């Protein structure tokens, strides 16, 4: 404290401040950050139960989906209070082309083949986890998600960004993820005019092999007791399945220590937190209350 600080936001400032600043650095590339968006702690694959249906008014015409979803749970929720749920990414690709009958705006009819259908979340969004972080249901109101849909209809390519047409309910716990009512309303070329269709998606992670990215883990192994007024080592062990975890940062009684801190003189009780953050912005905290005798 009391020292002047000269640093560059894209590099050395990360060493002086909390890792949350580092997570925002655009060129901070790690193996997992190539695959995952910043701020999403979990990335899961979409399982075989995931499906898209194109509703034309004649009926709903389905195809299985492949893809992924990335999200984070709120940190400070409780069983009695709501808190935000962060949906950082959603990408879904229809496995098959879908042939659909259409009624055009000019009253003619046709059958069109919709191929290479991709639906993606255009921008990250926050929903509400009812009952706090431990609750599984997360809600996004109608229009709360902006979805980009692209596909080919015959020889024409269509790309449209639309808000979700219905309330969206996500059920998520760890790497288990289910989303229903993902729906967008679109227009497609139809003879010499247009036709209205609705694209409805249901998405879920498979029962096994869902995790593409998970938060790191940390154990605070700092000794809980020892002699007073003696320096004590701050120690922790870190593991991370994606191999992109940063170094441990230490907080003492709610104050962030300098990156070089590895020990401190213990003269009374303190709460010491070891925090590790990975390239996605996922973090884990391990607390240890220490005292002296």
Rounded to the nearest angstrom, the radius of gyration is 24 Å
Give the strand order of the largest sheet, numbering strands 1, 2, ... along the chain: 2-3-4-7-8-11-12-13
Q: Helix content range of the residues, please?
A: under 10%
- Provide the number of structural domains: 2
Can you offer a commentary on this structure?
This protein is mainly beta and 293 residues long. It has two domains: 42-212; 215-292, Immunoglobulins (Immunoglobulin-like, Sandwich), CATH 2.60.40.10. It contains two helices and 23 strands. The longest helix has 5 residues, at 31-35. It starts with 18 loop residues before the first helix and ends with a strand.
List keywords for this structure.
293 residues, mainly beta, Immunoglobulin-like, 8-stranded antiparallel beta barrel, 5-stranded mixed beta sheet, 2 helices, 23 strands
